[in-house]
Design brief:
five-stranded mixed β-sheet; alpha/beta; 309 residues; Alpha-Beta Plaits; four-stranded parallel β-sheet; tRNA uridine(34) hydroxylase; 15 strands; tRNA processing
Amino acid sequence: MTDHSSDTPFTVAALYRFARLDHYRSLQEPLAKLCCNQGIKGTLLLASEGINGTIAGTAAAIGKLVDFLEAEPALTGMELKYSSASEMPFKRMKVRLKKEIVTMGVDDIDPLQSVGTYVPANEWNRLISDPETIVIDTRNDYETAIGTFQGAVDPQTKTFREFPQWVEKHRDDLAGKKIAMFCTGGIRCEKATAYVKGLGFEDVFHLKGGILKYLEDVPAEESRWEGECFVFDERVSVGHGLVEGEAELCHACRNPIAPQDKLSPLFEEGVSCPNCYHERTDEDRARFAERQKQVRLARERGLKQHIGS
């Protein structure tokens, strides 16, 4: 494991593995106890098809958790990406039992049986530069809004459940092409390639380790990535080298906003942003404004208490 303790106080680990995990229910309690004892926060999802999650803690604490998981024979060799955070990026720890570790909503999709060809980060540029390759971003619209690969097709899905419908609608466009898919950490595109392979497509590929691995391994000057990568924690986004990005969340709609969005006349902190302004009523914005006022007052009271303590 890479030690980030000398740089920042928190190590963030994104992990997953598709595996035959019939005893997944029995792992919930010991995992929750270990994370609680070690001060780890985040989310771990357990299902009969494997494990998925992102968690944060000290480097030593994350190391103990990874050792615990790797001791499970079915989970040995998990896909793991490490990054750093200057502050704890999660509010609590959740270990949840699920039907799927990434929800596509299609029965009988098994990445352990059939999956696309893994493409290492250092070979990805060559694949997506091929004019016979269709590059597909399997993430949702609020994620693609702040960054994606040059020339990538954006299905503009709201949830991953919509992805199979998009593929069915565009089967003719995909026929005879190399299909290269990517996502944040690798898990969604791994399931997506299994689905597409099941439809009869042969030349199907996906970025091993996802965007996070690409941003970690590929130098910025050689990169075909544009923007930042949305992450599901309080950091909001990361850039090359997995450094914390500039994106923030609109606390009205929970969508990411770039620095230029805050210059828009439609932006008001905690009330609206260019993404949601026209989707809300004046009553909604009045309610959000009152909520933001209470948040501000709470912060001021907390600051005063701190100064006087």
